[in-house]
């Protein structure tokens, strides 16, 4: 495609009714304007302007060409203005990925507040337990809950809080099977385990109470990587599950679950936010990042069962 700048220069000459006036308006030398328009006419093979010592007028071809140029120039100007609008205030669409239960427990209570504060922003939330690739899948932000923060040169990682794992079971199950008083008694109970805790067909639960540490190797009745399945299984009396505090807090408060062996717990997850490095970041994305950093830590603490601790156990 030919240089679109020549179209803009030609249109400026027509709009300002001459090369001298166009040079003053655009700040481009008159001789350069004349050369560029002449080069455009040569490429097209037609005369666009009739030149005289006093003025320039459009030829028939020039009039038709100018009419079409206006559409192109106005479209380009609109494109530039749309970017300037995006950069001037939070507006546009933000795509965020978050595990399902984190979305339900952490984002659901606070996201409406963000939407009310920034009415020009549209949020697309992909609540999925799948590990997404932010760059390849064009996500602006991802929330993660893992044992450690990911180390990557491509992303910025911000810790939002921590969630230890505690043991829970339904009161009915404990009434039937008995409430364990020491960790070793878990060997006599049915266990619900996360797949990431499994080694050689056994669940490895690294439990601690203050300075005491124990690693129990238990044979699970159910092993799954889905936290929702674990939660429902525990509520329905399948056995004892070791789960993040915020995931079970509502069920504990409602009496659907009961904490087993308090204050024993296991090392938990660091809840953190990932986003690409902020060079060229739009105000909309920055506004949501700042909002989540301000709001989510308190939400995580509110959903905790145990007294929050500093550092990762």
UniProtKB/TrEMBL annotation:
PANTHER family on file: HTH-TYPE TRANSCRIPTIONAL REGULATOR, TRANSCRIPTIONAL REGULATOR, LYSR FAMILY
Entry's transmembrane regions: none
GO biological process: DNA-templated transcription
GO molecular function: DNA-binding transcription factor activity; sequence-specific DNA binding
UniProtKB keywords: DNA-binding, Transcription, Transcription regulation
InterPro entries according to UniProt: LysR-type_TF_proteobact-type, LysR_HTH_N, LysR_subst-bd, WH-like_DNA-bd_sf, WH_DNA-bd_sf
Pfam family, one: HTH_1
Keyword hit for DNA-binding: yes
Protein name stated in the entry: HTH-type transcriptional regulator DmlR
Organism listed in the record: Vibrio mangrovi
Stretches assigned to the HTH lysR-type domain: 1-59
Family: Belongs to the LysR transcriptional regulatory family.
PROSITE patterns assigned: HTH_LYSR
